[in-house]
Design brief:
The chain is mostly beta strands and 207 residues long. 11% of the residues lie in helices and 30% in strands.
């Protein structure tokens, strides 16, 4: 049985733990044994009886060790993942209680409850898709991105690497969102978004 560490001991990590304890694979194919977190004050604490052992440099990796990424900030997430990849770490995809359409491909990413992904989509690695997200047909989502709860992404939209989309935002069909962009809470995006641009409002405007 694989031993899984959750990367991130904040709200997303605790939400993920709550979800995976009810996953049919937990306790059969893999089991969560602890957390890792870059914040020094978290080291030595516990979450639901599971230890926070420290950052990625404190974990001892074996062939039975895997990681699930529950970090909301793309830059921090990328740094931790890249450091672990240098140590030959393996990552797990968790997809509890979600609906994935035909020919859609999901990388080593986290899908929370009630995520709906339509047909012919491609979701990259180390993406966190929160509960209740709906993704239309032929959508592409790049690595290290974060999609908050209740987001709607229209068909054929393209979301770059390291993008953050906050809860309840709506992305219109065919829209392209550049790497590192941030979409604000409840924003409605009708036009393409440049790299590293922040958009807020309805209709969304750059700030």
């Amino acid at each position: 049985m694989k031993h899984v560490y959750i990367i991130g001991a904040g709200g997303l990590g605790r939400e993920l733990l709550n979800q995976v304890l009810g996953d049919q694979a937990h306790g059969r194919d893999w089991v969560v044994i602890g957390f890792i977190d870059t914040r020094k004050e978290k080291k030595g604490t516990t979450i639901d009886g599971l230890p926070v052992i420290g950052d990625e440099n404190d974990v001892f990796i074996t062939e039975n060790t895997e990681f699930a990424v529950a970090v909301g900030y793309p830059d921090i997430k990328r740094q931790v993942v890249e450091n672990l990849l240098k140590k030959q770490a393996q990552f797990i995809s968790i997809r509890t209680s979600c609906d994935i359409g035909d020919r859609s491909v999901v990388g080593k990413s986290i899908l929370m409850k009630d995520v709906l992904i339509s047909i012919d989509c491609k979701i990259g690695d180390y993406v966190f898709i929160d509960a209740g997200v709906t993704i239309g047909h032929d959508v592409q989502v790049g690595d290290y991105s974060h999609i908050g709860s209740g987001v709607f992404v229209g068909g054929q939209a393209k979301i770059g690497n390291g993008v953050t989309i906050h809860p309840k935002a709506c992305i219109a069909q065919n829209v392209k969102i550049g790497d590192g962009a941030i979409i604000g809470l409840g924003a409605v995006v009708f036009k393409d978004v440049a790299e590293n641009q922040t958009m807020i409002g309805n209709p969304a405007r750059a700030i």
